[in-house]
Amino acid sequence: MVIGAGQAGLSAAYHLKKLGLEIGPDFIVLDAASAAGGAWQYRWPSLTLSTVNKIHDLPGMAFDETLDTAGTTVQASIAVPHYFDLYEQKFGIRVFRPVKVENVYLHNDRFYIDSQKTLFSAMGIINATGTWENPYIPAYPGAELFMGEQLHTKDFKTADYFKGKRVVVVGGGISAIQLLDQISKVTATIWVTRRPPVFREGPFDDVAGHKAVAMVEERVRNGLIPSSVVSVTGLPLSPEVVDMKRRGVLNRFPMFSEITRDGVKWEDGREEKADVILWNTGFRGALEHLKAVLPREETGGIIMSGRLATMVAKEPRIHLPGYGPSASTIGANRAGAVAARELMATLNILESHH
Ligand code: FAD
């Protein structure tokens, strides 16, 4: 059973087929969304292929081949789903959708996968449900008192929504910068980040990327909650950023220490009024439906093992490509391949013991 048909789920399905399995008799792919595209179909309209980092090719088919418009201004929320759709067709990966898995449980050594419509059963699970469904907002004192709106990256559609509102943009990553850029053109903004942001002039630093992946991998192998691998890319010094500097909107404040009825407050007593707090504070694995079958540590994390740390150490019949160190398009690709192979190996070993 493959749950989720984003980059990780499609890569896993491709490799399961390559290992000789047939969709239908041997495995099925479920996805909560009504169309192809994984979480990319939900991205805000102004996120274009020139403003995302990079979409890595799925195995066996190049993304570029599927772009019918030259240039890089194509909306990511259209181009990537189009690519995934053609990919599913080319490799005969039939996805059952929309099927949202609500709960998974074990009975007589089989997994039961419960959606609103159907109850499926399986010997093993490749869970590739990504992070989009689980936005993360850190806790700050007073959050419940705030009379304005608290939104997350996930809620952003267009900057126009914020017109006339005073907006506190929280976060030092690429999403925060992109949304700050757009919102600051239509209304007053205050930017807060935990650490002073670092802008990079050159291309993405591969060495820093590898280091970040290794660090997150180490965390999940020890059962700790993963940190983000895509947040380490640094902030590119793009023409938009140069313009934001010129407009004075990159005047960054440290994190506030408390939220009040009508704004935010810093440790030194300084206060700012706000109508909206926009949290660009990332995502966590969307694993709620697996709570009955995933062994969690006291830290809240899951001990991962296997070649790319995609196998749940205490339940090797469950694999999580796209979780932790593989939560990037390149990582999800590789993780899908490894998860397919390692799950098959686990099930074959279990079978030979019976
Ligand atoms: P997803 O694409 O999230 O797919 C998960 C699928 O699972 C979805 O189709 C969903 O419908 C389905 N699903 C979820 N829950 C259930 C359920 N309970 N039952 C059934 N189906 C379910 N990474 C990069 O490498 N480069 C980038 O440029 C980049 N840009 C990003 C920009 C933004 C704004 C964000 C938020 C993330 C970005 N990322 C980027 C990270 C990106 O999300 C991952 O790299 C990758 O796309 C995740 O793939 P995935 O297959 O793990 O998950």
TrEMBL record:
Gene3D superfamilies reported for this sequence: FAD/NAD(P)-binding domain (3.50.50.60)
Record GO terms (molecular function): flavin adenine dinucleotide binding; monooxygenase activity
Assigned keywords, A-Z: Oxidoreductase
One Pfam family here: Pyr_redox_3
Protein name: Predicted flavoprotein CzcO associated with the cation diffusion facilitator CzcD
Organism: Dyadobacter soli
Organism classification: Bacteria, Pseudomonadati, Bacteroidota, Cytophagia, Cytophagales
